[in-house]
Amino acid sequence: MHDVLIIGAGPIGLACGIEAEKAGLEYVIIDKGCLVNSIYNYPLGMTFFSSSEKLEIGGVPFISHLNKPNRFEALEYYRRVAMTWSLKVRLYEEVKTAVKEEDGIFTITTSKGVYKTKAVIIATGFYDIPYLMNVPGEDLPKVAHYYKEPHPYFGQKIIVVGAANSAVDVALETYRKGAEVTMVVRESGILDTVKYWVKPDIENRIEEGSIKSYFNSEITEIRPHEVDIMTPDGPKTVENDYVMAMTGYKPNFSLMEAMGVEFQKDELHTPIFNDKTQESNVENIYLAGVVCGGLKTNKWFIENSRVHAEVIIEDLAIKKK
Ligand SMILES: Cc1cc2nc3c(=O)[nH]c(=O)nc-3n(C[C@H](O)[C@H](O)[C@H](O)COP(=O)(O)OP(=O)(O)OC[C@H]3O[C@@H](n4cnc5c(N)ncnc54)[C@H](O)[C@@H]3O)c2cc1C
Predict the structure, then answer these.
(1) Residue range 293-307, pLDDT digits in tens
(2) Best probe residue, ligand 1, of 6, 32, 56, 255 (max atoms within 8 Å of C-beta)
(3) CA 149, CA 307: separation in Å to the nearest integer?
(4) pLDDT, tens only, 32-44
(5) Would you say 272 and 281 are in contact if contact means Cβ atoms under 8 Å apart?
(6) Which of 70, 119, 209, 212 is deepest in the core (most CB within 10 A)?
């Protein structure tokens, strides 16, 4: 029997494990993928917007070569954290169901086994489900919702959909590695949330025509060698080899819903929790990390949600006394 079972071995799930370890609680962290699976799946050349000390957990120093660490350094860092604290992590094991029994104990069923636990922390992040464009041809192999690296796109005509950080990073990186890039953007310009040191770069590339753009526009159909775009000047058809749909991601709410977690009746689908303890409407189910923001996936991130770990474990430790 565990005191607490933590779903998700992202930075915040690991932080919860560290606090549980410090408090002497019996815990286990379970992840459906590898350690810090979301960061692993980020673009290979990704640089964090946070400086390295803001991503630290468990008092382990994060030294990076530059002020802002990159994905490789973050993977190295969180591996070192897991080893330093000898965290009890089970990887490649998906939590499928969690049922609260009459005695208040949870039965958690995973792809590999069954666990009993007195409390559950949901730290499942937001990187699992991409927003779809819902247009014909979206399922073609040339359409991707996750981006790794620019090399395959050298000499290719690519369309980048979106105007937030991910889209802008993909557009600039592929352009600089020899792709012919066109951005298709629903809004009237590059979003203000784009990193302030990157925004002028993309806007200048668009203005000088190095990167083509269609604003206030949407893709209406994707075919193997062409894409149809509805623009303010009417429909256009452009030649195309690849579509990078950087349209954002949303948390997988189904597990939370199945566990009885309730959500505010707003369009952001924000889960209900006590902001002093992070406890949801279901006693002994806690929420931690980016998942707390519902569809507002930029509300919570590593640097401002590390603190959830301490708050939750403090509450559990008080209950245990
Ligand atoms: C390109 C990019 C750049 C970013 N830069 C920054 C930055 O500079 N600074 C910053 O603070 N934040 C940044 N973020 C956001 C940051 O990565 C997230 O806030 C962070 O990963 C959230 O941590 P988390 O532990 O809450 O969730 P995640 O890191 O997403 O971890 C959730 C984990 O839960 C696992 N999981 C999900 N469902 C299940 C299940 N059913 N069973 C078992 N395991 C499951 C997943 O595999 C995953 O490993 C960035 C995000 C992106 C996309």
Answers:
(1) 988 888 899 999 999
(2) 32
(3) 33
(4) 999 999 999 999 9
(5) yes
(6) 119
